[in-house]
Design goal:
This protein is an alpha+beta fold and about 550 residues long. The protein has two domains: about 260 residues, 3-Layer(bba) Sandwich (FAD/NAD(P)-binding domain); about 180 residues, Cholesterol Oxidase, domain 2. It contains 14 helices and 28 strands. Strands 1, 2, 11, 12, 13, 14 and 28 form a seven-stranded mixed beta sheet that branches. Strands 7, 18, 19, 20, 23, 26 and 27 form a seven-stranded antiparallel beta sheet that branches. A hairpin with a 7-residue loop joins β24 and β25. α1 packs parallel to α14, α4 packs across α14 and α11 packs across α13.
Length: about 550
Amino acid sequence: MQYDYIVIGSGSGGAAAAGRLSEDGKTSVLLLEAGGKDRHPFIHIPVLFPHLLTNPKTTWLRKSEPVPGLNGREMFFPSGKVLGGSSSINGMLYIRGQAQDYDDWRDAGNDGWGWDDVLPLYKKMEDHQHGANESHGVGGPIAVSNTLPSNESSNKFLEAAIATGIPRIDDLNTGDQHGIATVQGTIRNGRRASAAQGYLKPARNRTNLTIQTGANVSRIVLDGTRVTGVEYLDNGGTAHTVQAGREVILSASAIGSPQILLQSGIGDSAELKDVGIEPTHHLPGVGKNLHDHAFVHLQPRLKAAYPTLNQMLNNKPRMGFELLRYGITRTGAFGLTSTEICGFLDSTGAGGRPDIQINYRPFSFDYSSQGGFVFHPFPGGTASICFTRPKSRGDVRLVAQNSGDGGTRLAIQPNYLDRDEDVQGMLRGVKILRRILNTQPFADYLEGEHGPAAQAQTDEEIIQHIRNSAATIYHPVGTCKMGNDEMSVVDDHLRVRGLSGLRIADASIMPVVTSGNTNAPAMMVGEKCADMIHRERNR
């Protein structure tokens, strides 16, 4: 079979690209997704997202290599394996990032990627609850709504943060994030608004769009330097080859996209030969520049008089009542984002560009051995920080199987906290969180800190706590970075350097991670990919 375009991966970027490319009703598009359809009920009920993170039916259950900066811990590294990709399993926060993030991309030589260039794409993809203005749009495929706090502890955290001097702002998505606010989320009428629901569901009856689930891409097919198609295995293990008349668009995530390129012989030739893969195109930057937002949290235990969502999540009758309420009205705790309060600030106190993100959730938990959440039986919250401008860099690579059978396996080394700047930023963030928690009115609710963080008081103790407990906040980027140096993988039109007929459209192309959650930026990348293709075809 031949299609005009083959899109690999139906996540945030891939769904956007496939949806837009097939809008004309004529251009034939094949969308390949390794996972299944987004039918699991927990996908659509926002508060139940933690249960998806460890479910093999919806999620790639990967782990990293031991990370030196985390005292040798392996990091759980999930990503979506279902229609909609990670937009179907994430915490639904809608955060674009700072205007400077995109202006930095542009100033590094990526024309057309500055804030003023990407803002129209963000507005185009939105259907914002509060209507159109200079920052937001309506009528687009992705519903965006403001979250009102479900629990009084969220309000008190917000008030305490303001009392410490953090400015209250109304909108985190204008390009200037400095301040604290209630969050915006990809939710409509109490249900998740994923990329699958926004871009693919309205397109399901298009005869020119074919969506193939259970299609695990093994390699990209080349004829010299021209990409001609894709090979994939179905769920039964049968191999299929499909041809692309125009282009292949790789959107398999910051982990999956470099993996597919490397399996296709596209990467550093010497490294590929070392693991028995015949190189087809030397591109040394594939898999390099991996970076991610790590976060660490403090868990305030609240006085018994101030219940949080823990009391609902651990009480089956009450949970049943809330579920019934949600089923009838689409309101209540079941229809909320993972985080209710979010802020960005310069942790140095100089009033410059924000470098940390603060989140507050009105529930507290421990991680299970599988990486999921186990909610505490007492009233508690989770106040977390991440350093939004990490300098540490890792990689994604193929290594020889330990079994010695000649095969390869994927190795993920995020290299968290390799650079002291990251450690010091996290340290400053923890101190800021503590100041908020001990400021009225939140302090009036506080019984004390829970967990090992409570024992970490000196700088060295806090740093060791960070190394022992920091975790991914699920924002890996950069492994197929956009740019014009020798370690860049794509140019500013998302075309893979040195090849024709292949683009990449997902978070892997980000030269530097945006300041905040990456779902919205990844969808924007898919929108921009389709927009550039349309413009080139219409010249």
